[in-house]
Protein backbone atom coordinates (compact mmCIF):
# COMPACT_ATOMS: atom_id res chain seq x y z
CA UNK A 1 0.00 0.00 0.00
CA UNK A 2 1.10 3.55 -0.67
CA UNK A 3 2.49 5.33 2.34
CA UNK A 4 0.34 8.42 1.64
CA UNK A 5 -2.93 7.45 -0.03
CA UNK A 6 -4.80 10.31 -1.74
CA UNK A 7 -6.95 12.38 0.60
CA UNK A 8 -4.87 11.48 3.64
CA UNK A 9 -3.79 15.02 4.46
CA UNK A 10 -0.73 16.91 3.22
CA UNK A 11 2.18 14.80 1.97
CA UNK A 12 5.52 15.57 3.56
CA UNK A 13 6.89 16.89 0.25
CA UNK A 14 3.95 19.27 -0.21
CA UNK A 15 4.57 22.87 0.77
CA UNK A 16 2.04 24.42 3.08
CA UNK A 17 0.89 27.84 2.03
CA UNK A 18 -1.81 30.39 2.72
CA UNK A 19 -2.97 33.16 0.36
CA UNK A 20 -4.69 36.29 1.66
CA UNK A 21 -6.40 38.94 -0.45
CA UNK A 22 -6.40 42.55 0.77
CA UNK A 23 -8.22 45.58 -0.68
CA UNK A 24 -6.90 49.07 -1.45
CA UNK A 25 -8.50 52.09 0.22
CA UNK A 26 -9.57 55.59 -0.67
CA UNK A 27 -10.23 58.27 1.91
CA UNK A 28 -13.72 59.66 1.26
CA UNK A 29 -12.81 62.44 3.68
CA UNK A 30 -9.33 63.35 4.81
CA UNK A 31 -9.26 66.20 7.27
CA UNK A 32 -5.82 67.19 8.53
CA UNK A 33 -5.61 69.06 11.84
CA UNK A 34 -2.73 71.29 13.01
CA UNK A 35 0.83 69.92 13.18
CA UNK A 36 1.38 68.32 16.60
CA UNK A 37 4.56 68.77 18.66
CA UNK A 38 5.52 65.13 17.84
CA UNK A 39 5.57 65.94 14.11
CA UNK A 40 2.33 64.10 13.27
CA UNK A 41 -1.05 65.58 12.42
CA UNK A 42 -4.35 64.61 13.98
CA UNK A 43 -6.47 63.16 11.20
CA UNK A 44 -10.16 62.58 10.83
CA UNK A 45 -10.76 60.36 7.86
CA UNK A 46 -13.35 58.05 6.37
CA UNK A 47 -11.66 55.00 4.88
CA UNK A 48 -13.45 53.08 2.14
CA UNK A 49 -12.08 49.75 0.90
CA UNK A 50 -12.39 49.19 -2.86
CA UNK A 51 -12.12 46.12 -5.05
CA UNK A 52 -8.51 46.56 -6.15
CA UNK A 53 -6.38 43.96 -4.45
CA UNK A 54 -2.94 42.79 -3.46
CA UNK A 55 -2.46 39.12 -2.58
CA UNK A 56 0.04 37.80 -0.07
CA UNK A 57 1.05 34.13 -0.20
CA UNK A 58 2.93 32.80 2.82
CA UNK A 59 4.71 29.46 2.45
CA UNK A 60 6.68 27.56 5.09
CA UNK A 61 10.43 27.98 4.39
CA UNK A 62 13.83 27.85 6.11
CA UNK A 63 14.29 31.60 6.42
CA UNK A 64 12.37 34.81 5.72
CA UNK A 65 12.32 35.60 1.99
CA UNK A 66 10.26 37.94 -0.18
CA UNK A 67 9.32 38.03 -3.87
CA UNK A 68 6.92 40.25 -5.78
CA UNK A 69 5.09 40.43 -9.11
CA UNK A 70 2.47 42.69 -10.66
CA UNK A 71 1.64 46.39 -10.60
CA UNK A 72 4.76 48.51 -9.89
CA UNK A 73 6.88 45.50 -8.94
CA UNK A 74 10.16 47.22 -9.89
CA UNK A 75 9.59 49.84 -7.18
CA UNK A 76 8.85 47.41 -4.37
CA UNK A 77 11.78 46.80 -1.99
CA UNK A 78 12.42 43.11 -1.29
CA UNK A 79 14.29 43.51 1.99
CA UNK A 80 13.58 44.38 5.63
CA UNK A 81 12.27 47.82 4.58
CA UNK A 82 9.22 46.15 3.01
CA UNK A 83 6.21 46.44 5.31
CA UNK A 84 5.27 42.80 4.63
CA UNK A 85 8.71 41.64 5.81
CA UNK A 86 8.38 43.78 8.94
CA UNK A 87 4.90 42.38 9.60
CA UNK A 88 6.21 38.78 9.50
CA UNK A 89 9.09 39.67 11.85
CA UNK A 90 6.79 41.50 14.26
CA UNK A 91 4.26 38.65 14.44
CA UNK A 92 7.02 36.05 14.88
CA UNK A 93 8.65 38.07 17.67
CA UNK A 94 5.27 38.55 19.37
CA UNK A 95 4.46 34.84 19.44
CA UNK A 96 8.07 33.78 20.13
CA UNK A 97 9.05 31.89 16.99
CA UNK A 98 11.36 32.38 14.01
CA UNK A 99 9.85 34.02 10.90
CA UNK A 100 10.58 30.98 8.72
CA UNK A 101 8.30 31.96 5.86
CA UNK A 102 8.54 32.81 2.18
CA UNK A 103 6.25 35.72 1.24
CA UNK A 104 5.09 36.34 -2.30
CA UNK A 105 3.25 39.57 -3.14
CA UNK A 106 0.98 39.83 -6.18
CA UNK A 107 0.33 43.54 -6.54
CA UNK A 108 -2.79 45.08 -8.05
CA UNK A 109 -2.55 48.26 -5.92
CA UNK A 110 -0.29 50.98 -7.37
CA UNK A 111 2.99 51.57 -5.48
CA UNK A 112 3.26 54.96 -3.75
CA UNK A 113 -0.20 55.70 -5.16
CA UNK A 114 -2.04 56.88 -2.05
CA UNK A 115 -4.09 53.66 -1.90
CA UNK A 116 -2.18 52.07 0.99
CA UNK A 117 -0.66 49.18 -0.96
CA UNK A 118 2.23 48.63 1.44
CA UNK A 119 -0.20 48.74 4.36
CA UNK A 120 -2.41 46.17 2.61
CA UNK A 121 0.59 43.86 2.24
CA UNK A 122 1.44 44.26 5.93
CA UNK A 123 -2.14 43.44 6.96
CA UNK A 124 -2.21 40.49 4.53
CA UNK A 125 1.06 39.15 5.92
CA UNK A 126 -0.24 39.31 9.49
CA UNK A 127 -3.35 37.32 8.53
CA UNK A 128 -1.44 34.85 6.30
CA UNK A 129 1.29 34.11 8.86
CA UNK A 130 -1.25 33.90 11.66
CA UNK A 131 -3.08 31.22 9.65
CA UNK A 132 0.11 29.41 8.49
CA UNK A 133 1.58 29.29 11.98
CA UNK A 134 -1.73 28.61 13.71
CA UNK A 135 -1.05 31.37 16.21
CA UNK A 136 -4.76 32.21 16.48
CA UNK A 137 -4.22 35.72 17.85
CA UNK A 138 -7.46 37.50 18.82
CA UNK A 139 -8.51 40.26 16.43
CA UNK A 140 -7.68 43.03 18.92
CA UNK A 141 -4.09 41.79 19.17
CA UNK A 142 -3.72 41.67 15.39
CA UNK A 143 -5.11 45.22 15.32
CA UNK A 144 -2.50 46.37 17.87
CA UNK A 145 0.32 44.81 15.81
CA UNK A 146 -1.14 46.39 12.66
CA UNK A 147 -1.16 49.84 14.30
CA UNK A 148 2.54 49.42 15.20
CA UNK A 149 3.35 48.81 11.53
CA UNK A 150 1.59 51.91 10.19
CA UNK A 151 -1.50 54.06 10.60
CA UNK A 152 -3.26 52.62 7.50
CA UNK A 153 -2.62 48.97 8.37
CA UNK A 154 -5.50 48.36 10.86
CA UNK A 155 -8.13 49.47 8.35
CA UNK A 156 -6.83 46.97 5.77
CA UNK A 157 -7.71 44.21 8.26
CA UNK A 158 -11.30 45.46 8.56
CA UNK A 159 -12.23 46.79 5.13
CA UNK A 160 -15.73 48.18 4.52
CA UNK A 161 -16.22 51.85 5.34
CA UNK A 162 -14.87 53.19 8.62
CA UNK A 163 -13.89 56.36 10.42
CA UNK A 164 -10.21 56.70 11.28
CA UNK A 165 -8.98 59.05 13.99
CA UNK A 166 -5.69 59.71 15.78
CA UNK A 167 -3.09 59.16 13.08
CA UNK A 168 -5.78 57.13 11.27
CA UNK A 169 -5.19 53.94 13.24
CA UNK A 170 -8.23 54.20 15.53
CA UNK A 171 -11.03 52.58 13.56
CA UNK A 172 -14.78 52.92 14.06
CA UNK A 173 -17.18 51.35 11.54
CA UNK A 174 -19.47 53.74 9.68
CA UNK A 175 -23.00 52.83 8.71
CA UNK A 176 -23.01 52.68 4.93
CA UNK A 177 -25.61 51.36 2.53
CA UNK A 178 -25.31 50.29 -1.07
CA UNK A 179 -22.49 49.87 -3.50
CA UNK A 180 -20.48 52.59 -5.23
CA UNK A 181 -18.90 52.60 -8.68
CA UNK A 182 -15.33 53.93 -8.72
CA UNK A 183 -12.82 54.65 -11.43
CA UNK A 184 -9.13 55.10 -10.57
CA UNK A 185 -6.56 56.93 -12.64
CA UNK A 186 -2.95 55.90 -11.88
CA UNK A 187 -0.25 58.51 -12.47
CA UNK A 188 3.03 58.00 -14.30
CA UNK A 189 5.06 58.44 -11.11
CA UNK A 190 4.41 57.86 -7.39
CA UNK A 191 4.27 60.63 -4.79
CA UNK A 192 5.85 60.50 -1.33
CA UNK A 193 3.32 60.83 1.51
CA UNK A 194 5.69 62.80 3.84
CA UNK A 195 6.47 65.24 1.00
CA UNK A 196 2.76 66.00 0.54
CA UNK A 197 2.27 66.64 4.28
CA UNK A 198 5.36 68.91 4.31
CA UNK A 199 3.92 70.88 1.39
CA UNK A 200 0.59 71.21 3.26
CA UNK A 201 2.41 72.61 6.31
CA UNK A 202 4.40 74.96 4.11
CA UNK A 203 1.27 76.28 2.37
CA UNK A 204 -0.55 76.74 5.67
CA UNK A 205 2.42 78.58 7.20
CA UNK A 206 2.72 80.87 4.17
CA UNK A 207 -1.01 81.67 4.20
CA UNK A 208 -0.87 82.16 8.02
CA UNK A 209 -4.07 80.11 8.14
CA UNK A 210 -5.81 79.29 11.38
CA UNK A 211 -5.94 75.47 11.09
CA UNK A 212 -9.17 74.00 12.46
CA UNK A 213 -9.24 70.75 14.43
CA UNK A 214 -9.77 67.76 12.15
CA UNK A 215 -13.33 66.55 11.65
CA UNK A 216 -15.63 64.79 9.19
CA UNK A 217 -18.63 66.59 7.67
CA UNK A 218 -22.04 65.33 8.78
CA UNK A 219 -23.11 65.57 5.12
CA UNK A 220 -20.70 62.79 4.11
CA UNK A 221 -21.91 60.46 6.85
CA UNK A 222 -25.51 61.18 5.87
CA UNK A 223 -24.76 60.34 2.22
CA UNK A 224 -23.20 57.01 3.27
CA UNK A 225 -26.11 56.14 5.56
CA UNK A 226 -28.53 56.85 2.71
CA UNK A 227 -26.40 55.05 0.12
CA UNK A 228 -26.83 58.14 -2.07
CA UNK A 229 -23.99 58.41 -4.58
CA UNK A 230 -24.94 61.91 -5.78
CA UNK A 231 -24.81 63.27 -2.21
CA UNK A 232 -21.62 61.31 -1.58
CA UNK A 233 -20.00 62.73 -4.71
CA UNK A 234 -20.70 66.27 -3.51
CA UNK A 235 -19.41 65.57 0.01
CA UNK A 236 -15.98 64.06 -0.89
CA UNK A 237 -13.16 66.12 0.59
CA UNK A 238 -9.40 65.75 0.91
CA UNK A 239 -7.19 68.40 2.54
CA UNK A 240 -4.15 66.96 0.75
CA UNK A 241 -5.50 67.88 -2.71
CA UNK A 242 -4.02 71.39 -2.80
CA UNK A 243 -0.48 70.40 -1.74
CA UNK A 244 -0.46 67.33 -4.01
CA UNK A 245 -1.58 69.38 -7.01
CA UNK A 246 1.04 72.01 -6.22
CA UNK A 247 3.76 69.31 -6.27
CA UNK A 248 2.26 67.63 -9.34
CA UNK A 249 0.32 70.21 -11.41
CA UNK A 250 -0.82 67.65 -14.02
CA UNK A 251 -3.11 66.07 -11.40
CA UNK A 252 -5.42 69.00 -12.05
CA UNK A 253 -5.79 67.86 -15.67
CA UNK A 254 -6.62 64.31 -14.52
CA UNK A 255 -9.27 65.54 -12.06
CA UNK A 256 -10.86 67.77 -14.71
CA UNK A 257 -10.86 64.99 -17.33
CA UNK A 258 -12.89 62.74 -14.99
CA UNK A 259 -15.29 65.51 -14.04
CA UNK A 260 -15.85 66.49 -17.69
CA UNK A 261 -16.60 62.85 -18.52
CA UNK A 262 -19.49 62.86 -16.04
CA UNK A 263 -18.07 61.74 -12.69
CA UNK A 264 -20.38 62.80 -9.85
CA UNK A 265 -17.43 63.09 -7.50
CA UNK A 266 -13.70 63.61 -7.96
CA UNK A 267 -11.11 62.99 -5.30
CA UNK A 268 -7.40 62.68 -4.77
CA UNK A 269 -6.83 59.25 -3.20
CA UNK A 270 -5.01 59.69 0.13
CA UNK A 271 -1.81 61.63 -0.53
CA UNK A 272 -2.08 60.88 -4.27
CA UNK A 273 -1.14 60.76 -7.02
CA UNK A 274 -3.96 58.30 -7.81
CA UNK A 275 -7.20 60.14 -8.58
CA UNK A 276 -10.56 58.56 -7.74
CA UNK A 277 -13.85 59.22 -9.53
CA UNK A 278 -17.32 58.28 -8.37
CA UNK A 279 -19.80 57.37 -11.10
CA UNK A 280 -23.58 57.09 -10.84
CA UNK A 281 -23.65 53.53 -12.23
CA UNK A 282 -21.64 50.96 -14.17
CA UNK A 283 -22.42 52.46 -17.58
CA UNK A 284 -21.28 55.93 -16.55
CA UNK A 285 -18.20 54.44 -14.89
CA UNK A 286 -17.26 52.95 -18.28
CA UNK A 287 -17.61 56.39 -19.92
CA UNK A 288 -15.42 58.04 -17.27
CA UNK A 289 -12.85 55.24 -17.60
CA UNK A 290 -12.70 55.62 -21.39
CA UNK A 291 -12.13 59.39 -21.14
CA UNK A 292 -9.36 58.91 -18.57
CA UNK A 293 -7.64 56.28 -20.73
CA UNK A 294 -7.12 59.05 -23.29
CA UNK A 295 -5.71 61.63 -20.83
CA UNK A 296 -1.93 62.12 -21.23
CA UNK A 297 -1.50 62.62 -17.45
CA UNK A 298 -2.87 59.10 -16.80
CA UNK A 299 -0.78 55.90 -16.95
CA UNK A 300 -3.51 53.33 -16.33
CA UNK A 301 -7.19 53.17 -15.42
CA UNK A 302 -9.00 50.67 -13.17
CA UNK A 303 -12.64 50.29 -12.19
CA UNK A 304 -13.70 48.90 -8.82
CA UNK A 305 -16.70 48.64 -6.52
CA UNK A 306 -16.73 49.78 -2.92
CA UNK A 307 -17.02 48.89 -0.14
CA UNK A 308 -14.85 45.74 -0.31
CA UNK A 309 -14.23 43.28 2.53
CA UNK A 310 -10.94 43.48 4.45
CA UNK A 311 -8.00 41.02 4.49
CA UNK A 312 -9.28 37.46 4.06
CA UNK A 313 -7.83 34.02 3.43
CA UNK A 314 -8.62 32.66 -0.04
P1 LIG B 1 -0.31 55.39 1.73
O1 LIG B 1 -1.55 55.56 0.92
O2 LIG B 1 -0.48 54.54 2.93
O3 LIG B 1 0.46 56.64 1.96
P2 LIG B 1 0.95 54.48 -0.66
O4 LIG B 1 -0.06 53.55 -1.25
O5 LIG B 1 1.04 55.85 -1.21
O6 LIG B 1 0.71 54.49 0.87
P3 LIG B 1 2.86 52.37 -0.76
O7 LIG B 1 2.57 51.68 -2.05
O8 LIG B 1 2.36 51.74 0.47
O9 LIG B 1 2.36 53.88 -0.81
O10 LIG B 1 4.42 52.54 -0.71
C1 LIG B 1 5.14 53.68 -0.32
C2 LIG B 1 6.63 53.29 -0.32
O11 LIG B 1 6.85 52.27 0.66
C3 LIG B 1 7.09 52.71 -1.62
O12 LIG B 1 7.67 53.70 -2.43
C4 LIG B 1 8.06 51.61 -1.25
O13 LIG B 1 9.39 52.05 -1.35
C5 LIG B 1 7.78 51.32 0.21
N1 LIG B 1 7.20 49.96 0.48
C6 LIG B 1 7.45 49.21 1.55
N2 LIG B 1 6.76 48.07 1.52
C7 LIG B 1 6.03 48.07 0.40
C8 LIG B 1 5.10 47.16 -0.18
N3 LIG B 1 4.80 45.98 0.40
N4 LIG B 1 4.50 47.50 -1.34
C9 LIG B 1 4.79 48.68 -1.92
N5 LIG B 1 5.68 49.57 -1.43
C10 LIG B 1 6.30 49.29 -0.27
Automatic annotation (TrEMBL):
Annotated GHMP kinase N-terminal domain residues: 82-160
Residues the entry annotates as binding ATP: 110-120
Family annotation (InterPro entries): GHMP_kinase_C_dom, GHMP_kinase_C_sf, GHMP_kinase_N_dom, IspE, Ribosomal_Su5_D2-typ_SF, Ribsml_uS5_D2-typ_fold_subgr
Keyword NAD in record: no
Pathway the protein acts in: Isoprenoid biosynthesis; isopentenyl diphosphate biosynthesis via DXP pathway; isopentenyl diphosphate from 1-deoxy-D-xylulose 5-phosphate: step 3/6
Residue span(s) of domain GHMP kinase C-terminal: 221-294
Active site: 25, 152
EC numbers, comma separated: 2.7.1.148
Enzyme class: transferase
Protein name (Swiss-Prot/TrEMBL): 4-diphosphocytidyl-2-C-methyl-D-erythritol kinase
Entry-linked NCBIfam families: ispE, PRK03188.1
Top-rank taxon, per record: Bacteria
Family named by the database record: Belongs to the GHMP kinase family. IspE subfamily.
Reported function: Catalyzes the phosphorylation of the position 2 hydroxy group of 4-diphosphocytidyl-2C-methyl-D-erythritol.
Keyword Isomerase attributed: no
Keywords assigned: ATP-binding, Isoprene biosynthesis, Kinase, Nucleotide-binding, Transferase
GO MF annotations, alphabetized: 4-(cytidine 5'-diphospho)-2-C-methyl-D-erythritol kinase activity
Recorded catalytic activity of this chain's protein: 4-CDP-2-C-methyl-D-erythritol + ATP = 4-CDP-2-C-methyl-D-erythritol 2-phosphate + ADP + H(+)
Amino acid sequence: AAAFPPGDGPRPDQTQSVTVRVPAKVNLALSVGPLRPDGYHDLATVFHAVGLYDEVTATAADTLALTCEGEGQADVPLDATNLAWRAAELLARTVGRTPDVRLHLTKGIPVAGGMAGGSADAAGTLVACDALWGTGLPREELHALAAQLGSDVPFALYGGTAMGTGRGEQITPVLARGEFHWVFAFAHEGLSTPAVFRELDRQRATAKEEVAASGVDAELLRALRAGDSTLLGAALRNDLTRPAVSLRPDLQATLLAGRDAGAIGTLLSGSGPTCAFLAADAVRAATVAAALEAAPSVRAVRRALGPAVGAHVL
